[in-house]
Structure formats: C-alpha cells, structure tokens
C-alpha cells in the first residue's frame, strides 16, 4: 500500500513540474515576438504627376550695344544692380555730335533766311507779271527758286533731327527693367555703333520655362488643356528638396514637332523669388483627373525580383505577402493602384526585419501626411467630392 502511495505522489509531482515548465515556455515565446510598426493604409484623392526638366529663360534679354560710335566717358551703374527702363548706363563723349548739331542749326538758319528771300521775290514776280514788267520765264525761275529753298530747308531740318538723335544716343540708357551684368568695355575705350557689346540686361520679374511633352502623354492627359486655362505647375530648382515655386502654362505651341514627336509648352512664373535665367529646374505638371487611390509609405514596399510587394497583417498577427502595382510617388508616400484595399493593415517599414509567415507583436502607428501634396493645389482635393 505504501508503495502505491509513493508512486502516485511521484507522478503528481512530475505533472506539476511539467505544467510549470510549459507555462514559462509559452510566456517566453510570446515575449520573443518581433514588435513591428503597423498602420492601416490611407485612401486619398490624388493626381498623376508628369515631371520635365528645363532651364529658365527671361522674357526679355538685351545685349546692349551703342547706336553711335564714340569713346566711353562715364559708366553710370553698379554691376549686378537692378535697373529701370530709361536709367543712364553709359555716357559717350558727346562733343563731336554736339558740333554737328551746332553746324546744322546754323545751316538751317541760313536756309530759312534764303527761303524768306525767295518767298519775297516770288511774290514780287507775281505782281510784276500782272503789270507785264518781267517776262513769264523770269517769274517761273523765281517760283522754282522758292521751291528749291523750301526743299533745302526741309533736308537740313531732317539732318538736324538725325544729328540730335545721334547726340541723344551718346547717353546710353536701359531699354528694359531688369538686372544688369558687368561692363564688358570700360571707360576710355572706343566703341562701334551696333557692334560693341557693352553689357547685358535680363528681366527679372517674370521667368519662362519651356519644356517638351511627348505626343502620347499630351493626348492621354492634357488634350483638353488650353493656354487660356492657365493650367497650374510647380517647379523645383537645383538644391531644393521641395517644389516651392508655383506657376502656370501660358503658351502651347500650334503643332507637334514631327522630328521629335513632342509638343513645346511654356510655364510662366510671375512671383520671382530668387529665380535666375539659365537655372536648371524640374517642372511638375498634374493631369486634370483626380482619383482616389490607396496610399502607403514608400519604405513599406519591397522588391522581389521583378515584383513589388507589401507585408500585410493577417489573422493571428501573421505577416502575409501581397503583390502590388505602384503608381506615383508623393513625398515619402506612394500610390498603390492594385493589390491593396481600404482597411488593409501593413508593416510600415516593409520587409527590413521580417518576412511573410512570421508572427509579430503589432505596434499600431498613425501615418502622418501633413505637408504632402497629393494634388497640385489644396483646393483640388475637394474637386473629387464635388464630382460625386
């Protein structure tokens, strides 16, 4: 009897120890589950972007050349300054031209005196002819002389106007508003009319950006766009992380370039905050159609050979492999056009530390999209709701 009691006691102790051992093991397995950030996918109204490279151009650009020859007497601007139309930039030695003006003024005065005498003789000839005191031939000669004096005076006055213009052109003024470059020719040097480039000026209040859109893209996404619509665009300069400059399309060429299969388009930027002609830039143009698409962090998407996938959280917090088709990128987020639906929960950081089939300890986080532009303008996000 004692032997049976001892056996039962030993068996009970063994079962108790076994149960105690299994419970810590289960707790240990739960404690070793990988904690992973997860979030529910977003659904946002978005537009498809098209990006083009370009260089900025000034609407007005002048290579300043003198209209008359002469020696530079004064440079009246600071290099790199902003100038206004009509500002004095260079002054040439005006004395030779002033002398020509003075000479012609004297010749005009002499011609006016000669004309006055010819007018008097012509009037006298009319009276004498009526009394038959002079011959008709003499009267006609005086009339002809009057006409010659009138023509000579008119020619001299025209020469005087031209001479005054030449004198005026010795003051070389800015033909446009803009930013002036350095002086290519300095004080004391002789310059030639229409040949010597003194400096250059570019307008700076507005900038143009020309870019070429391929025919297929234009017909698919922008066929209804007209220049008068002022289709909005955004621009990013070299070294910038965001598309900080907003402009609009103000010119669309009248034909497709048959050699390249592209259409020339121009964007205009009126608010010039540090834009310079010749700068390299990237233009983003958005299609008019606004659609709702699933949005996920770009880092949540993994690559498997030619496929793209995300890891979704399934039953029992087991990660599942989901093939996806991706669309446009918006900041640190990307649109998913196929493979996910609203309500799906994904591993935010992708397959960096985990893989499909793994159980995880989910840590739910919120996807922050503040400051991310999913449409070209903030008001465009309401367009989708208005259409519904």
UniProtKB/TrEMBL annotation:
Q: What is its main location?
A: membrane
Q: Which Pfam families match?
A: Beta-barrel_RND, BSH_RND, HH_MFP_RND, RND-MFP_C
The signal sequence is 1-21
The major lineage groups are:
Bacteria, Pseudomonadati, Pseudomonadota, Gammaproteobacteria, Alteromonadales
Give the source species: Pseudoalteromonas haloplanktis
**Alphabetical keyword list:** Coiled coil, Signal
The Multidrug resistance protein MdtA-like barrel-sandwich hybrid domain, residue ranges: 61-197
Name this protein carries in UniProt: Efflux RND transporter periplasmic adaptor subunit
According to Swiss-Prot or TrEMBL, what is its membrane topology? Answer: Lipid-anchor
Question: Which ranges carry the Multidrug resistance protein MdtA-like C-terminal permuted SH3 domain?
Answer: 294-350
Please give the coiled-coil regions recorded for this protein.
101-166
Which Gene3D superfamilies does this UniProt record tie to the protein? 2.40.30.170, 2.40.420.20, 2.40.50.100, Helix hairpin bin
What are the Multidrug resistance protein MdtA-like alpha-helical hairpin domain coordinates in residue numbering?
A: 102-170
Q: Which family does it belong to?
A: Belongs to the membrane fusion protein (MFP) (TC 8.A.1) family.
Report the subcellular localization.
Cell inner membrane
Q: Which InterPro entries does the record associate with it? A: MdtA-like_b-barrel, MdtA-like_BSH, MdtA-like_C, MdtA-like_HH, RND_pump_MFP
Stretches assigned to the Multidrug resistance protein MdtA-like beta-barrel domain: 218-287
